[in-house]
Amino acid sequence: MRAINHDGEQLGIIATEEAMRIAAEAHLDLVEVAPDADPPVCRIMDYGKYLYEKKKKTKKKVHISQLKEIKLRPKISQHDYDFKSRHVARFLEDGDKVKVTIMFRGREMDFTEKGKVLLERLAEDHKENCAVERYPKLEGRNMIMILAPNKQQQQQQK
């Protein structure tokens, strides 16, 4: 068989027992890399390290977009709005979608347009970082809007 040492240098055509002895002395493994060749080609390497590096190369760091939720009330103070708005900005920068929910209680249901104005204001404040994926819509006692991060912004972060 043809043998290749751990540095990539060819050792030539040698007997299998000789190649196994050389691999054992170096505390490495003898791995058959081309069994169909004539003669077969074997390489002396650390097979565990090879598998680890191969597995590491195939894994890619992919950010899975999550849906984060921010809950607001229609009678929100300016400070609380700013605080929640900063959270929305941070979520969008991280590449996550944001579900903004306004909860109405009791007589607040008569003034749902206030909630819509608040959601539109939030979308306007973050228009450079996001796109409105779902416009404000009343579902029961909640009004929901979904914001998605811009594609250009995500590519700049990479």
Which descriptors would you attach to this protein?
5 helices, 2 domains, single chain, Ubiquitin-like (UB roll), 4-stranded mixed β-sheet, 158 residues, alpha/beta, Translation Initiation Factor IF3, 8 strands
TL;DR?
This protein is of the alpha/beta class. The protein is about 35% helix and about 30% strand.
General description of the model:
With about 160 residues, the chain is an alpha/beta fold. It has two domains: about 55 residues, Ubiquitin-like (UB roll), CATH 3.10.20; about 90 residues, Translation Initiation Factor IF3, CATH 3.30.110.10. The chain contains five helices and eight strands. Strands 2-1-4-3 form a four-stranded mixed beta sheet. A four-stranded mixed beta sheet has the order 5-6-8-7. It is rod-shaped, with a radius of gyration of 31 Å. The mean pLDDT is about 90.
Topology of this protein?
Blueprint lengths: L1 E3 L5 E4 L2 H10 L3 E6 L6 E5 L1 H12 L8 E6 L5 H16 L3 E7 L8 H14 L4 E10 L2 E8 L1 H7 L1
Parallel strand pairs: 1-4, 5-6
Antiparallel strand pairs: 1-2, 3-4, 6-8, 7-8
What's the main sheet like?
A: 4 strands, mixed
CATH homologous superfamily of the largest domain?
A: Translation initiation factor 3 (IF-3), C-terminal domain
**How many strands?**
8
Q: What is the gyration radius calculated from CA atoms?
A: 31 Å
Decide which structural class fits the backbone.
alpha/beta
Share of helical residues: 25-40%
Shape descriptor: rod-shaped
Instruction: Outline the low-pLDDT stretches.
Output: none
What is the name of the CATH architecture of the largest domain?
2-Layer Sandwich
Distance between the termini: 47 Å
Helix tally equals 5
Could you state the order of secondary-structure elements as H and E? EEHEEHEHEHEEH
Mean pLDDT: 88
